[in-house]
Design brief:
With 207 residues, the chain is mainly alpha-helical. The longest helix has 26 residues, at 53-78. The protein has helices at 2-18, 21-30, 44-50, 53-78, 87-103, 116-126, 128-145, 148-165, 170-186, 188-195. Helix 4 (53-78) packs across helix 6. It has one domain (2-195). The N and C termini lie far apart (52 Å). It is built from 10 helices and no strands.
Length: 207
């Protein structure tokens, strides 16, 4: 029964992450399938460029909240002591599960967003000091490069580095490294466009 509780929490976290907020907002506000517009990504940036600033901002906030809600409430509700799985380890697993849900949502045939905002929500609950350093890195990079995707990649890569430098627990370092790997993988098309100098800058509208 204890293991079932733990697994149920992980599955619920995955389902929370799977809620396709950008798809829902694009449908409600413009009646469009966001996957067929702009970059085709199911995320806040594409909604911002394609649908509008307010819907994009709302999607961003809700995607962040998915990470916050999962770590804050699901962990406390479903955690039961078993073996070597302590509360902190389970919290990391819940955080990873909600991001996996966002990136590979069951509601859109496992084609989700890139997990940046949801990862930010998770990190806000796990290590707000590390998130703050990553956010500063993101802002500096976007001001210099004008590329949201590049800034997200650089910030994501900086998180486990900052965690290691500041002496955070090994579990947290490994979890942030996994988040970085997922973010990088989900940005593979952006990386290709960056290399070909075809990536849109933050000031450019989607077409």
């Amino acid at each position: 029964m204890t293991v079932l509780f733990l697994l149920s929490g992980l599955f619920l976290s995955y389902l929370v992450g799977s809620i396709p907020t950008s798809y829902i907002f694009a449908k409600l506000s413009r009646g469009i399938d966001i996957r067929n517009y702009g970059s085709g990504n199911v995320g806040a940036t594409n909604v911002y460029r394609t649908v509008g600033k307010l819907p994009g901002l709302l999607v961003l906030i809700l995607d962040i909240l998915k990470g916050v809600v999962a770590v804050l409430f699901i962990t406390k509700t479903f955690y039961r002591p078993v073996g070597n799985i302590d509360f902190e380890v389970y919290k990391l697993a819940i955080g990873l599960a909600v991001v996996i849900g966002h990136d590979w949502t069951i509601f859109l045939k496992f084609k989700g967003g890139k997990g940046v905002a949801t990862s930010a929500g998770v990190l806000f609950m796990l290590c707000p000091n590390i998130l703050a350093l990553g956010a500063i890195t993101w802002v500096i990079t976007v001001l210099i490069s004008k590329y949201v995707s590049l800034s997200s990649l650089v910030a994501s890569a900086s998180i486990p580095i900052f965690a290691a430098i500041l002496g955070e627990p090994l579990g947290l370092i490994l979890a942030t490294a996994l988040l970085c790997l997922m973010t990088t993988y989900k940005h593979k098309e952006n990386i290709r466009r960056l290399m070909m100098k075809q990536e849109k800058k933050v000031t450019q509208k989607a077409t």
